[in-house]
Amino acid sequence: MNREQVKIALAGNPNSGKTTLFNALTGLKQKVGNYPGITVEKKLGNAKLPNEIDAKIIDLPGTYSLFPKSMDEKVAQQILCNDENVDYPDVTVVIADATNLRRSIFLLTQVIDLNMSVVLALNMVDIATKKGIIVNVDLLSKELGVQVVAINARKRKGIESLRESIINAIDKKPLKPFLFVRKLFKDLIEKANKIRGKENDYASFLALCKQELGGEVVNRCALNQLCKALDIIPERVQAKETVKRYKAIDKIIYQTVKQGKPTGKYQITKNIDDVLIHPILGYVVFLMILFLLFQSVFSWSAYPMEVIDSFFTNLSVWIANALPPGMLNDLLVNGILAGLGGIVIFVPQIAFLFAFIAFLEDTGYMARVSFITDKLLRNVGLNGRSIIPLLSGAACAVPAIMSARTISSWKERLITIMVTPLMSCSARLPVYTIIIGMIIPIEEFRGFNLQGLVLMAFYLLGFMAAIAIAFVMKFIIKSKERSYYIMEMPSYKMPDWKTVLYTIVEKVKIFLFDAGKIIIAISIVLWGLSSFAPGNKFEKIEEQWAGKADSEMHIAAEKLEVSYAGMIGKSIEPAIKPLGFDWKIGISLITSFAAREVFVGTMSTIYSVGDENIQSIQERMKNVKNQETGEAFFTPAVGISLMLFYAFAMQCMSTLAIVYRETKHWKWPVIQFFYMGALAYLSSFITYQLLS
Amino acid sequence: MQKLADLKVGTKCQMCMISDPELEQKLLEMGCTPGEKIQLIRKAPFGGPIAILVSSYILSIRKYDAEKIAIKLIKNE
Hints:
The structure holds two protein chains of two kinds.
Chain A: E1 5-12, H1 18-26, E2 30-32, E3 43-49, E4 53-59, H2 71-81, E5 91-97, H3 101-113, E6 118-123, H4 125-130, E7 134-135, H5 137-144, E8 147-151, H6 159-169, H7 181-185, H8 187-196, H9 201-208, H10 217-229, H11 234-256, E9 257-258, H12 267-276, H13 281-299, H14 302-322, H15 327-344, H16 347-363, H17 365-379, H18 387-392, H19 397-403, H20 410-419, H21 428-439, E10 444-445, E11 448-449, H22 450-476, E12 486-489, H23 497-531, H24 537-545, H25 552-562, H26 564-576, H27 583-592, H28 598-608, H29 617-622, H30 636-648, H31 653-663, H32 667-691
Helix pairs in contact in A: 3-11, 5-11, 8-9, 8-10, 13-16, 13-22, 14-15, 15-23, 15-28, 16-23, 19-31, 20-22, 21-30, 23-28, 24-25, 26-27, 27-28, 30-32, 31-32
Chain B: E1 2-3, E2 12-18, H1 21-29, E3 37-43, E4 50-54, E5 57-61, H2 63-66, E6 69-73
């Protein structure tokens, strides 16, 4: 065998442990398309197989069958069914949950029938055995005609034998299909094969059942005519085939699996569900979990944030003193370090937030939340499944919008995509944190951290705005499509900590490097814009103050005002003055359009230009005086207005790009940009006018 | 014929027929085949979805869709 690299696809039902197996096979040698997201995007990883063979592993989105109900399942179908797809695998590993064998094997047998080289990775056999479900692995392998490997993905057991089985499976197609669709539907399949120009019975069958396998558009008409000519209703044919397939599966299950007491298995899950989806308690618990989440994001991360803050402050002082004064010193300390410190400090909060969400998803709790919220969400044009994108939106809208792919109805999916960016994402967190720190005192309110409460109020506000806008859109967007809510509620389990850890590392990396690059670049540009001015304006200011005592601060302030940055800020000041913002905030608003978290970096750069006493950004901002009144500039009115603006405005290019990619039309991101902008401007305007 | 939506929590029954072809397709592949034993195990509050136990896992569907599922009660169990 002389392959340079074998391509392996990992397929399986949702919640079967697929991502855990993927991590076990690839370790940290994985990359995620262009954007992050838990198994919604094409995930690729490299692995070494025995005999020094390199393998590229594709983690397909979880799917129950090759009849996709949603976008993400379609991705899996199109890779597996089309041998012209770039990702078409040499070997497909189907992972099955041994405690849930019947349904898992359904997908497996479909993959066998596509005439692919298959290995069945039977996950959690040990757990099944404990529950009294005893699987005869050898007999199962014989009956199915494929290699079956018992593994435990979490405990990394059986991974070596799986690697070997994959090697053995290369170029070994199944000897016979599991279900002879050719026999079932006779010349129908042969004719379809002819139309498609391919000898793949099952792929042709799927194409007949109106599945788009890629490259099918040309044949669509001919296939439809074939159905008509033979008087066949594709839906009926598909239903008949599914029933036959399950009958054959049931026969094998009966021979190879000894079922234990069916009640014992659910007792724990049932007991937990008695509380978590209780008609009243369920909602109380849900709110409590959210509350705990925001309290902890705020208070647990306070200590590491302090450490990071003092580290950067000390580093700045050290560099400022160690290097000779001048342009380079200034650029390093006030341009780059100021911007860098502004990003790194939020790593603890972002890590906690993503950890919480990964935890909720991994334990199986998210499925419960969608169960108890489906009714409410359906009334506003969403779906129970929308709760996952909405909650993930609290971390980052980009993966959240991609996770909306699991919603089968286009209208519900579109509305979910349109309102998800209203959820306060982690990029708003730095903005909220800084402003709350300035205008809300560190006090306890009925035993709770007051700052944490205000933060939670802003998250709730985002959620309520999302619900309200969804309700409006429900009446605007028209669709004839029926809406479904068919969702598995997985048994509760402790999350696989390694998988959670990988998720956190991945997200923090993306935040630090992808967002960090932009933030540093903008920090440098800003430093340049605020350190230079057209003509000889700077010299004039220096002449004016020459020889006067205490002139440093005044010179710096006036210089900033006449600099290029000041000019830009001033030019938009008239538009934002009614919101309580000055030209300095104006500069931040403009730079924030690259990404919201740039706000902090911008603020720290602007306020540190010419500042000799290096303080933390928050102290610097607190010291800013209103030039008209002489009081502190950041009054509660300004602070809340600014927070509202950031809560609602669409200031994220990545989100706009992903909305375009997911909706395949510029119309939607454009609408989103303008409705969110209008919402932001109006709410800031009203709030500031009322409060000031 | 009794409908799945009308059952009490805890009732065991057998799948008979799903009167909506689109729904039928989606439920069939999830293992809800004719004759399969299922149990209604939970109802979400305020007329929300219901949860059923089918081939040893929990599946939730809307009450509205459960109206279209005809079942046969299992006696003596």
